Amino acid sequence: MSVGAKVMRQLPALFGAQMMQYLVTLLTIPLLARTLGPEGWGRTALLMTFAQLALIPLEYGFHVSATRTAARRQACAADLAGLFGSVTAAKLLVALLLALPLYGVGLAIPHGGDDPWLPALALLAAVAQAQDPMWFFLGTEQPNRIAAATILSRLATLAVLVLFLRGPEDAWIYFAAQAASWSGLLAYGILLVRRQTGFGPRHLRAPGTPLRDGWRFFQLFLGSNVFDALLPIVLGAVSTPQSVGVFVAADKLARAASGLIGPLRTALFPSVTALMAESREAAARLWRWAMLRAGGLAALAGLVMLLGAEPIMRAVLGAAAGEGSAAADMLRLLSPLPLLLTVNITLGVQWMIPSGLEGWLRNLYLASGCLRLALCAALGWQIDALAGAVANLCGELMVLGACLVFLRRRRLCPWSA
């Protein structure tokens, strides 16, 4: 079977899971915004951002490093069982060491830590999500085995919110449902891995190797994703919870639109990694094939956001959207973001990391993140929540420009290989 055919075979399952994640996001935001009210939604949005921030060190880069290792060992069931055991042990150790410091961060979130139970539940949800076993099934190129369970877990979370969310005091239900959903998915994933590899308690090996392998990728994503999570927190320090809620809703919609194309990028990573060792030209052809399709879909998503901003934001936020066109202007301003994110992620994660350039990419992400935070803090006093959108766009444009110049100078461009 050709590499392209392998990638295409994985797409239905990945797209199904991603579509469900996208649908749940679209339905959850308006449900929370309407039920919790503008201020309650703003506070919950800040805690959702805290959970996203906590997820970065809790994942520790395992979703890339472990996927790559699994792709290289997929022919040996015993090796896969040992890998799953050592990665699971490493994840649990990281969660144990970081739980207390991260909870302290949650209590310090502006407007978000008024109730000490909510940061605790948000952290619990992040810990549970960090245990997601999808990396194993991506590395072994069989995501269809767990995709249905992922879809069902997202639907179950949404059903719990619809049935039990009644007022501003029920924000805890959202985080509790997330924690239960991810925990159930982990249990099912362990069952599947056990059937395939014979995995058992004896395979819970020392976590040293996964921790070492994940360190470089942790640094890379620390310099990238952490700033996505910090931006609303910085905005909350110079703005109101209501403004933060509007920004978080628009930003999540834009990132969900980019994430909708994520399955194509996700399926691409192990294939490009394997091809890079054999033929850079073949890897570049596969990259161009995926980039053309992912970029076209992302551009279409951005166009929908641009033309339908007002009805989209009104449908998503309801009364929390406020009077006037501020929420719609936010979404219009962010409409280029799906395309920028898609190009940058496909170029960085799917090409530069397999090329061994993660160190340079990490430094670029750090510089871009610092620029975003500085712009948000400086502009937030003048243009309120729009500062977050401006900061995001400037940061992504900086990453794109720097990558293009660097690859051209090194003669590593995938479009000319």
Pattern of helices and strands: HHHHHHHHHHHHHHHHH
Strand proportion, as a percent range, falls in under 5%
Name the overall outline. Answer: globular
Derived structural class: mainly alpha
Please characterize this protein's 3D structure.
Keywords: Cell membrane, Membrane, Plasmid, Transmembrane, Transmembrane helix. This is Polysaccharide biosynthesis protein. It holds the Pfam family Polysacc_synt. The chain crosses the membrane at residues 12-33, 45-62, 83-105, 117-139, 146-165, 171-193, 214-237, 289-313, 333-352, 389-407. The model has no long low-confidence stretch (mean pLDDT 85). This protein is mostly helical. It has 2 domains: 1-215, no CATH class; 223-417, no CATH class. The chain is 82% helix and 0% strand. It is globular, with a radius of gyration of 21 Å.
